[in-house]
């Protein structure tokens, strides 16, 4: 009786793993399409700016727009990469470290496109505290993984 229960459980786990792979594959495809569209739009925008002679990297607005789009692409690609790890079975779920990295990238993007003049000091301090907090948590997780690897190799 107990053996049947374990077989049923492993069958359900196998079905769920296939379901997870299908969803992950679908998400990867959707994100790949979004990245491609965003890349094409970025390329067209940069080309248009070059043709019209408006591309001045020292112009703060141009810099914000272009690098905001580039950071958005990097965030989407990192997110897609974390899903691919699930598909390759390197990880069963998206890792906390990856989520923290994506959050840090999103906040870095926010700082790049931020109009400091229109933002209050409190809001700027809150964003800075978020970056600091995420950075500390990321560092702590990385240090723990490093320690765990040292212990397991000893």
From TrEMBL:
The keyword Transferase does not apply. It is found in: Cell membrane. It comes from the Bacteria. The keyword Transmembrane applies. Its main location: membrane. Pfam families: PsiE. InterPro entries: P_starv_induced_PsiE-like (IPR020948). GO terms for cellular component: plasma membrane. It is a multi-pass membrane protein. Keywords: Cell membrane, Membrane, Transmembrane, Transmembrane helix. The chain crosses the membrane at residues 21-42, 62-81, 93-113, 119-141. This is Diguanylate cyclase. It comes from Desulfolithobacter dissulfuricans.
